[in-house]
Design a protein that fits this description.
The chain is α+β, with helices and mostly antiparallel strands. It is 39% helix and 22% strand. Strands 1, 2, 3, 4 and 5 form a 5-stranded antiparallel β-sheet that branches.
């Protein structure tokens, strides 16, 4: 058998497998989409920004499954003492509807702005909420890298009011 026939045989077998089970290859690598998530929406945790945005969107949607996926497994131990109960409840999915609604109202309107500082595998992230009267409220999210799952939120700082408004990144002049 020459090289050309060998390749045709290999591709012929692959084509036969695809004809018999077209979704087998995709199903092997794709994780199932939770039924209550947005159609086709998957959260990615490749950067700290994606982790913070996924956490805020999960809270906004009041989706306990997505909230759990965006939370670090180390959060119940590494968070501030007043937040440990919250993160333990999120990971165990024991968060009641009233507690989830309260968390959603606390974080309503906050937007991820930029990472502040970090070290290997850990960083803090600035999250702002603009107010109609010109004031700004800020929270600091602590985010960490987990080997198997990527960046996840491990703590949420207290809400504070800023004296001087935070400006966005400088505009590039061309």
């Amino acid at each position: 058998m020459n090289a050309r026939n060998t390749w045709l045989t290999i591709f012929g077998v692959a084509g036969l497998c695809m004809a018999l089970a077209p979704n087998a290859i995709e199903a092997k690598h794709a994780e199932p989409i939770p039924p209550d998530s947005a159609k086709g929406r998957r959260d990615h945790f490749h950067t700290s920004t994606e982790a913070v945005v996924a956490f805020l969107e999960a809270v906004k949607a009041k989706n306990a499954v997505r909230l759990r996926k965006a939370t670090s497994v180390h959060a119940p131990n590494e968070a501030m003492p007043e937040n440990r109960f919250l993160f333990r409840a999120i990971l165990e999915q024991n968060l009641s509807g009233a507690e989830l609604t309260a968390l959603a109202s606390e974080l309503e309107g906050f937007q991820a702005v930029r990472p502040l500082r970090g070290s290997a595998g850990r960083t803090t992230y600035l999250v702002l909420k603009p107010s109609p009267n010109g004031r700004q409220f800020v929270r600091i999210f602590s985010v960490r890298w987990e080997k198997k799952t990527g960046w996840k939120v491990r703590d949420i700082g207290e809400r504070r009011q800023l004296e001087k408004p935070v400006q966005g990144p400088p505009k590039r002049i061309e």
